[in-house]
Amino acid sequence: MLHLTADAAQLARHYGLDAHRSLLFSAIRLDSFPLVAPLIAQSGEDRFLLVRQQEQGNALSAGVPKERIRFYAPWVTIDPRVVADTPAAASLASLVAELASDDDRVHLAADVVLSHHRALTGTGALEVTADDRAPAPVVAHEIDTDAVLARFGGWRAEGVRVARRLIEGIEHLDGLAAELSATEDTRFAGLTALARERALDAVLLAATPNVTEAIGHAQPAGSVAMWLPEAERLVLLAPQGTPGIPGAAAGTYPSAGAAVRALSPGARTGVEEEFIGIGLARELEREGAELVGVSSDLGHWRDVRDHEDLGFQVVAARASVFAIEEALAWAEDGLAAGREFTELDIHAVYLDKIVEFRTAHDIPFGIEPYFTNLHSSNRMLFPGPPVHFPINAETTCIQLDAGVRIVVEGVTVATSDMARSLPRTAAAKQAYGFFFDVVRDGIIGQLRPGVVCEDVHEGTLRYLAPHLDRMREIGMLGTEVDFDTEYRKRNVGHLMGKQESFANELRPGYKHVLQVGSYGAAEIPWRYDDAAIGTEDLWYVGRDRTYIVSKR
Fold first, then answer.
1. Where's the Peptidase M24 domain (predicted)?
2. What are phi and psi of 250, to 5 degrees?
3. What are the pLDDT digits (tens) for 64-108?
4. What is 9-75 written as a DSSP string?
5. pLDDT of 436-465, one tens digit each?
6. Model-level pTM?
């Protein structure tokens, strides 16, 4: 029998790996990191680390021996040479089926995410069992929704004041100040609409971005929130003995599952299938809950309300463009002076520049790192966090794709996601200049009310088409793959909803229609030969025009 676990302590013990520090997408996907985190698969004495191929470079950079890794979900790349010697299974389910082929039996630890359990059972070829989690008493606290709205309203008023001060006198952002508001708040109306659309009796929130959006406080460890749409009640369930729980005490229950059964008027319960473990899912089902996956729905709930926090988004964008461009300018000056340093040195400067921005502009709330994709192309073309790798005269390109989060009293109220690069070869420099045209004219130039997300992607391919031969001429593209076919497998941007959105992407198959107030990022990642180039800007669809919020 094959055993699977996502236990962080075992990852550290067996592989010296901290997914949140060493890998990229575990840091980006705040609402679904268990879905993309590595798994340990063991059968007898054989033990392997199961990793999505997009994290291949990071796992190897962290020191995990390649022979101890099995990859799945092939990485989308326009340079297939990068992965030519590294096979990857089409999906986790197909990889697990291969590893369990002796007897087709798989056992999951309670921490394995519900989505994986559903994917494995959905094959019909595997016998899947799972651990239960030990029941633990919880206390229920009812949260006053009017107090939540007032709390966010006060924060937002301050965010608007700061944002207006930051953009005053910036010509290309003229008019944006009039779009900033602290009065609109549809969070609870949106939750109720979601519940009615999916015919839910309750919506259970466990991922931090969703919990804090609902309760307006930092998430107590181990807690989950529950929205009851019929009564429009918000209840926080926390382990018994947790200090400082917000709200009014409303009862004690032997487990979270028992609390949901007692408090919900019916069985249909929305859950974050990309976040909760199979142990909690089984606990809920034992108490009679009918589980409905709503991870994507909740991502959409955050995405379409992001304009309500536009003041904070503007602060995040302005902090990001300053810190990223200043850090790369430091690196460029250092290389010009003949100095040698490391990726971690650039990262340290980047972090210092975030602090400098906050101090210089007297920002009254926190600005913290969200994620950092910073690497030399000499180390790898894969995206990933910085390591102790040299930057010197031989460096061909440096990519810095990163985001910050704006934090008020432990609650993330905005995030950013943008990228700049330091190309060092003639070809990479030429391509990088063109990619700004692609992002700002070819992608953001399409964004207006009524445009469908997937149509933006197709329009971007049309914009790129007449330039591909030139990319081949200068050595920034080959003939190994059909460019359009490969690039249709990835996005050219996304909305933002307190994180990079995976619910609404500028990508084939995504039907969301942009509206006044849509906010997101546009990007054209280009990783070929000796240059991994990132070019990405944040945009906002205003009443009269679309703004590039991350342009200096």
1. 316-524
2. -135, 25
3. 999 999 999 999 999 999 999 999 999 999 999 999 999 999 999
4. HHHHHHH---HHHH-SHHHH-TTTHHHHS-EEEEETTEEEEEEEGGGHHHHHHTT--GGGEEEESPP
5. 999 999 999 999 999 999 999 999 999 999
6. 0.97
